[in-house]
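Data availability (excerpt). The following record was deposited with the supplementary files.
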Amino acid sequence: MNELLDAARKSNSNSDPSDDSEDRYEKLKKEEAGTDDEDLAKKRYEEIKEEAKKEYIEREKKRREKEQEEASKDEEDDPGFVTY
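Predicted structure:
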């Protein structure tokens, strides 16, 4: 029985404090809830990245539409090959 207690004490003294089951449980719950304190900067970065991506797509879409519109105007203005 004493050997069991000694082994338990040694394993607790050698273990990493972040390896505590209560800490792991709290960390897991935060991750599941999406409120992990350490990842707030990472989450904000991802949000900004997605917003920038959407803006870029919109700008490119508008640019392409403008180019197509200008190309169609040029075609309408050009009477083609005309001989007199």
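Summary of structural features: The chain has three helices and no strands.
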